[in-house]
């Protein structure tokens, strides 16, 4: 399997759990944000740019009891799933220009398999966060943390399609909270969200409801 050597892998994020202590401390006191948000950015207007967000769950992985969860590898089914979801994204014109991902092995392997189909994905700036692995297991915190991580690296001019790759339960919660509707994400499924806004900072607020365009589900 070819590795996506074009990815700019951020070593500081890959080796550390960003904000882990803060996240754990808030588990008991932070309720999940409400599903229904208050502001819709689904219609184009003067000075607004269409911004797209892909929330992709990692591909199917091997259930090996002798390997810690973080190091589980994707299965043969997972490889096919990753290839299929990449084909679907490419056919719909949703090619990411920025990637944020959990630093788990199965997440990285999912992206490597996708690169076999989406060659351009190999040249995309990618940031791996240990905290995106950790936060997905916590109640109601994933959406906020995705927004925090994204605002650290996103560029209003260069980045129009951002893909975040991670884990349930957090990814389903985040997709549901972004869109204001219940979203289910099977392995290698992707929620396609979009908004018109003047900046990423403007659209990455708790009060903003994104348009859920579609949920892509591999046939495997």
Automatic annotation (TrEMBL):
InterPro entries: His_Pase_superF_clade-1, His_PPase_superfam
Binding of substrate, residues: 57-64, 106
Coiled coil: none
Taxonomic superkingdom: Eukaryota
Protein name per UniProt: Phosphoglycerate mutase
